Automatic annotation (TrEMBL), chains A, B:
PROSITE patterns, per database record: HTH_GNTR
Name used for this protein in its record: GntR family transcriptional regulator
Coiled coil: none
Lineage start: Bacteria, Pseudomonadati, Pseudomonadota, Alphaproteobacteria, Rhodobacterales
GO MF entry, a single one: DNA binding
Gene3D superfamilies recorded: GntR ligand-binding domain-like, Winged helix-like DNA-binding domain superfamily/Winged helix DNA-binding domain
Residue ranges occupied by any HTH gntR-type domain in the UniProt entry: 15-82
Superkingdom, natural source: Bacteria
Length: 224, 224
DNA sequence: GTGTCTCATCTTGTATACAATCTGAAATAC
DNA sequence: GTATTTCAGATTGTATACAAGATGAGACAC
């Protein structure tokens, strides 16, 4: 029995219904209300959300593009499972992409400055960590990466990273760890921030890559 | 006046019609039969391809996910333009992803070998280049990257790179250059291949990144 | 009992009708 | 003449009916 009762169009935006359905299903998957492997039956969802199958189908196809759902022709759509292999792949891809983002950010700072937002976020993370404020630390972490992606000045890369970030969120949910990470993670963020502020692109990339490599190893050790 | 007459379902696979439409439109965009900015009108395409609007819509949404088409609600779908900014973003993203792929490939070779396919492709590229055989060189280049992605052993990364590769193809089409690249490109492929064969992951990554950085600079210098 | 076939049933894929929204040109006010 | 409004046409978004393919239970042969 699926927990369809937790899925609702209420919180969503005001665009076309397919968009609202998409956001509702996306939330449900990210919050694990729809668990990995769960089937997304069009008729069932349609009657529950009081819309026709058409917007349901569009939403499912979009979730498929996001990598959150797997679609098998004439068979159905299923919430993608996060196997050990897929977790590894996601973190490896993040390493490549965010390393590149750090490199670009450092180069941009070297050319025209503007590192303040990133530094402020890094400082906020440190303070939240010292206070033991998990919520504030998670918020600061989100802000840190938003600032990094802004500095990288690459919409394509930012979009790819946003998709990955959602998957990472799901993994965190699985391993039941806080998103901001531990003390080591904190120091790596600060080191990356310093390298970017110094305009040292190669170092920024290397530090960021090592960070993701460590997080990957650590996370995989928590999985079966 | 759009060149719809060049779009056909003939060459496609045998899956659902939405899949065949998707492949037909994808081919048309990659071959520039549908030029950047062109509107994809559902009714027009439906009557031309002899299907209803439904599979047309599904195909368009999938192309949107691939980054080949831009969809604006209640307005329409348009073949994405390749502005200078987008070209830069695409090449930067490719640098991050393929650098990571090279790193992973080198690590895998160091652990369990299997570099033969990559070496063979690199050698084929060299021979085709010496003969001046552009077609063979392009084929060998495709094979080289396929071998690299196989060694990287990361389906998620491979899929992202496949999408990027299509965009790069479009850029090549714009700049009217052969895909395999010049002599410098050839040497960089060989150097990357050697680093991977040696199992030197960091070097493989660096060489691959430098390659894409050079190609990016070179390509951007050819655009307005 | 085991394996295969048949067919009713369910789910997804497609076609078509209708609703919502955008667009542009003509009409109108000033 | 210019700006604003109105409205008809065109296009996308949604609902619903029908077609195509998958699934599993039961019949049947051996």
């Amino acid at each position: 029995m699926n927990k369809l009762e937790t899925i609702s169009l209420e919180g969503g935006g005001d665009g076309p219904q397919s968009m609202r359905v998409y956001e509702a299903l996306r939330r449900a998957i990210l919050r694990s209300d729809l668990q990995p492997g769960a089937a997304l039956q069009e008729t069932e969802l349609a009657s529950h959300l009081q819309v026709s199958r058409t917007p349901i189908r569009e939403a499912i196809r979009r979730l498929n593009a996001d990598g959150l759902v797997e679609v098998i022709p004439y068979k159905g759509a299923f919430v993608k499972a996060l196997s050990r292999t897929e977790v590894r792949e996601i973190y490896e891809t993040a390493e490549g992409l965010e390393g590149m983002a750090a490199w670009l950010a450092a180069r941009k700072v070297a050319a025209e400055g503007g590192v303040e937002r990133l530094q402020k976020a890094a400082q906020a993370m440190r303070e939240a960590f010292d206070r033991g404020d998990v919520v504030a630390r998670t918020e600061a972490d989100t802000e840190f990466h938003a600032a990094l992606h802004e500095l990288a000045d690459n919409a394509y890369l930012a979009q790819a990273l946003a998709r990955l970030r959602e998957q990472v969120h799901r993994v965190r949910h699985l391993t039941a760890r806080a998103f901001g990470g531990n003390a080591a993670s904190l120091e790596e963020h600060e080191a990356a921030c310093r390298a970017i502020a110094d305009g040292d692109a190669e170092l920024a990339r290397t530090i960021t890559q090592k960070h993701w490599e460590r997080v990957r190893t650590e996370t995989l050790s928590l999985l079966p």
